[in-house]
Write a structure and sequence with these properties.
The chain contains six helices and 13 strands. The chain is of the alpha+beta class.
């Protein structure tokens, strides 16, 4: 119904589940429980890429904590790590960091790296939840925990003044924790599934005061994250006045919009920003450190700005892009 009301702006959720049995994964069991797949049908590194660790050129050290990047004459020569109470160094001609947008800058700061933007411009998305009771239409269908993406508020002239918004349709697993303490299913005879749960996810602007810093405990970063930007707040404030238009394709009985935004969406961005100018970015367009040219800093810390979209596929694509540049092959 939403696809019919908003052609080209509402889509079924793309997923990484196996619709049919593969060599490594069974078919999706369609429980809507995707955070930890109960049958291992969802893609993971272990169920599809574990063979990489069998390569004799690969050594995986578990229980090892990286403590510093060793540099000599502007060249990274190794990673100092601690394991089983002993400090050791892994030597290498090329060093890659993939410890997320909190620990990548923290490790660089611990190693004596210095840049005005290192650890700064930390940002994330923010979301509002809603519960819509429907009149005569059943919901909750499909196999995945998120069933649809709506782009009705994603782009347009409004972005001159307020943030873009991605709309997620949630299925039963995610719906177990609804706003206002409501149950996933309605307690009305014959109308249990006539309830829809949506999450409205807003972009936020980078803020140099939001940052990752060194603290008293060298192993734990200090994270500073203040209030949301006015840009994001204006979009959240505008949302109640847009709901009638958004739901015009649905028989709506009642809409409840949670006024309390989420603390975060777990998509941490922007602490090792990429760019062409070393004065205004930490790494270059190929994710290589501007000063130490054999050091690659991977992950979503490279993002100069954020969108409402999940960043995972983009940061994976950036890693492939960096590898293609370094090794000259696709």
């Amino acid at each position: 119904m939403l696809q019919a009301a908003f052609p080209g702006r509402y889509f079924a959720q793309p997923t990484a589940r196996a619709r049919q049995k593969t060599d490594h994964r069974p078919a999706c069991c369609a429980t809507g429980t995707c955070t930890i797949c109960p049958v291992n049908a969802k893609f993971t590194i272990l169920n599809e890429m574990a063979g990489l660790y069998a390569d004799p050129r690969v050594t995986l050290l578990t229980g090892a904590t990286a403590e510093a990047i060793e540099t000599t004459g502007g060249v990274a020569s190794g990673v100092v790590y601690r394991r089983d109470g002993a400090t050791e160094t892994a030597r290498g001609d090329l060093i890659g960091l993939g410890a997320n947008a909190l620990f990548n800058p923290h490790l660089l700061l611990r190693s004596g790296f210095d840049h005005p933007l290192l650890g700064r411009r930390l940002h994330d998305q923010v979301a509002l939840g809603s519960v819509i009771d429907l009149d005569g239409v059943d919901n909750y269908n499909g196999s995945t925990s998120i069933t649809g993406h709506g782009y009705m508020l994603y782009d347009g002239d409004h972005r001159r003044e307020r943030a873009a918004c991605l709309i997620e349709s949630l299925n039963t697993a995610h719906a177990a924790r609804l706003p206002f303490g409501l149950p996933a299913l309605r307690n009305v005879r014959g109308r249990h599934r006539q309830r829809m749960v949506l999450k409205f996810i807003f972009e936020d602007l980078p803020n140099e005061e939001n940052r990752v810093m060194l603290g008293d405990d060298p192993a734990r970063p200090v994270v500073v994250h203040g209030p949301r930007s006015d840009y994001a707040r204006r979009s959240m404030d505008a949302l109640p006045g847009l709901l009638d238009e958004l739901f015009r394709g649905l028989p709506v009985e009642e809409v409840r919009l949670d006024p309390t935004p989420t603390a975060n969406e777990g998509h941490i961005l922007g602490t090792t920003v990429m760019g062409d100018d070393p004065a205004t970015s930490v790494i270059d367009r190929h994710l290589i450190h501007h000063t130490v040219r054999n050091l690659v800093v991977l992950g979503s810390g490279a993002f100069p700005t954020g969108s409402p979209a999940n960043p995972t596929l983009t940061l994976a694509a950036l890693s492939l892009w960096a590898a293609e540049h370094l090794f000259g092959r696709s």
